[in-house]
Design a protein that fits this description.
This protein is an alpha/beta fold. It has two domains: 276 residues, Aldehyde Dehydrogenase, Chain A, domain 1; 196 residues, Aldehyde Dehydrogenase, Chain A, domain 2, CATH 3.40.309. Helices cover 39% and strands 22% of the residues. The protein contains 16 helices and 22 strands. Helix 5 links the parallel strand 7 and strand 8.
């Protein structure tokens, strides 16, 4: 470890405004690049998780009635404090996730700060919408009259935020900040692999003046901790980012108890590349699967559908690009691709590459573990001569692996893209913009990038099919963490 600030501290749980010793002791959090211990995370008991939810319930009444300006001020102050400690927060995020320093600084910590600032403003957005008056005839419901109506967004209540390991700043911030802005209270359950950054977020909120019980953080390596955070009687809503399999189990619990849900689940993004596309732009977008979080991102364009006329050219360009990527120490300034999150996940990704070989795919580049003594590294891997029925083309690998599938015409491209259980983000590259938008409208995905992998951070985000339930980002997140109430009166 290069910075003693990362330290080997034993963290405490944050419950009802107090830092509490965990009932289950602590477990080590590892640096995926070095396999060294970064720190020790607390192992909460089920009773402590329930206590956190009860604290959030107790705090909800007063917090939900605070003036929006007060909530906005707290969120803004928290953003200031996260930014003040940006260097230390970046070092910690890099150490516990294995992200490169540039990614930890710019895409993790900085995005977390930006989301708190966005929802400080969001707290001030109107929650009332006037509806067109309705003229009612006299009848069993009363006398004739003109009736006005107002749709009002109210906070849901206590929200459990279960966050993903690939971004321990942006992902929790995207849940906690809009939930608090709307007047909800929260129980945050970070991913077990890298929870330490979330405690720094909680410290910033505490210093910013968030009232006791409004924010609670519980952690644990055992599934029972997450299960308790979902089934706690005081929880009204669960916001989850992670795998579809876990999301389904959470949804079953929520369904039994009528808890609200926001689910951002897996993806197998199709990138359709037509023969008139700017191949440089397409390649630049697709290879982010190799370089961005080492492919550990649900929005990655991992399934490349390329028209036969440019198939070989695209494969050659992708292979050439992959060959230039430096794999190694994420703290080194020239590193592009760091490790994946754990040894178990590295083994899982490698098993998919071997499965691809057995299924008949050609390993164009990668496929072998990088020659590094320590760390959970996977080489950027390109699989060509794939078909859409192969498991490597259908299942989310969540690593630096891209599969390439040829197609002949537009109809086949659309059919292949839609032949998936997932539907989070797809992409279309074509020099014919009209065709690109025509194809995009026919894709069964929550979002489509047209000649770009860029995002508009006010656009709704979420998935079709097994990629999720609900939408967030921008003002849509405020809607996601609210309930609609109708107020009706005679005019």
């Amino acid at each position: 470890m290069s910075d003693p600030q990362v330290g080997l501290a034993e963290r405490k749980l944050f419950i009802a405004g107090e830092w509490v010793e965990p009932d289950g002791g602590h477990y080590p959090v590892l640096d995926p690049a070095t396999e060294d211990v970064v720190g020790f995370a607390p192992e909460a008991s089920r009773e402590q998780v329930y206590r956190a939810a009860a604290a959030a319930r107790e705090a909800f009444g007063a917090w939900s009635r605070t003036r929006p300006e007060e909530r906005a001020a707290i969120l803004d102050r928290a953003a200031d404090l996260m930014q003040r400690d940006g260097a230390a927060n970046t070092e910690l995020a890099r150490a516990e996730t294995g992200a490169t320093t540039a990614t930890a600084r710019g895409m993790q910590v900085a995005v977390g700060v930006a989301r708190f600032r966005r929802y400080a403003k969001g707290a001030l957005e109107p929650v009332e919408q006037a509806l067109v008056p309705q003229i009612n005839e006299a009848g069993p419901m009363g006398r004739a009259g003109v009736f006005g109506a107002l749709a009002v967004r109210q906070p849901v209540g206590v929200v459990t935020c279960v966050t993903s390991y690939n971004n321990p700043w942006a992902n929790p911030a995207g849940k906690v900040a809009p939930a608090l802005a709307m007047g909800n209270t929260v129980v945050v359950k970070p991913a077990p692999q890298d929870p330490l950054s979330v405690f720094k977020m909680a410290e910033a909120l505490e210093e910013a003046g968030v009232p006791r019980g409004v924010v609670n953080v519980v952690t644990g390596s055992a599934p029972a901790v997450g299960e308790a955070a979902v089934d706690a009687p005081d929880v009204d809503m669960v916001s989850f980012t992670g795998s579809t399999a876990v999301g389904q189990r959470i949804a079953e619990v929520c369904g039994r108890h009528m808890k609200r849900q926001l689910m951002e689940l897996g993806g197998k993004g199709a990138a359709i590349v037509f023969d008139d596309a700017d191949l440089g732009s397409a390649v630049g977008g697709i290879v982010t699967t190799f370089s961005f979080y080492s492919g550990q991102i649900c929005t990655a364009p991992t399934r490349v559908l390329v028209q036969r006329g440019v198939h070989d050219q695209l494969v050659d360009k992708l292979a050439e690009y992959a060959g230039f990527l430096k794999v190694g120490d994420p703290a080194a300034p020239d590193t592009v691709l760091g490790p994946v999150i754990s040894a178990a996940h590295r083994d899982r990704v490698e098993s998919y590459v071997e499965l691809g070989r057995k299924e008949g795919a050609t390993v164009v580049t990668g496929g072998q573990r990088p020659p590094l003594e320590r760390g959970f590294y996977v080489a950027p891997t390109l699989l060509a001569e794939c078909t859409n029925d192969m498991r490597v083309a259908r299942e989310e690998i969540f690593g630096p692996v891209v599969v390439v599938i040829p197609f002949d015409d537009e109809e086949e491209a659309i059919a292949l893209a839609n032949d998936s259980e997932y539907g989070l983000l797809d992409y279309v590259w074509s020099g014919d913009v009209a065709r690109a938008f025509r194809v995009a409208r026919r894709l069964r995905a929550g979002g489509v990038g047209v000649n770009t992998i860029g995002r508009n951070m006010e656009a709704p985000f979420g998935g079709f099919k097994r990629s999720g339930v609900g939408r967030d980002v921008g003002s849509y997140a405020l809607h996601a963490y609210s309930e609609l109430q109708s107020l009706v009166w005679p005019g």
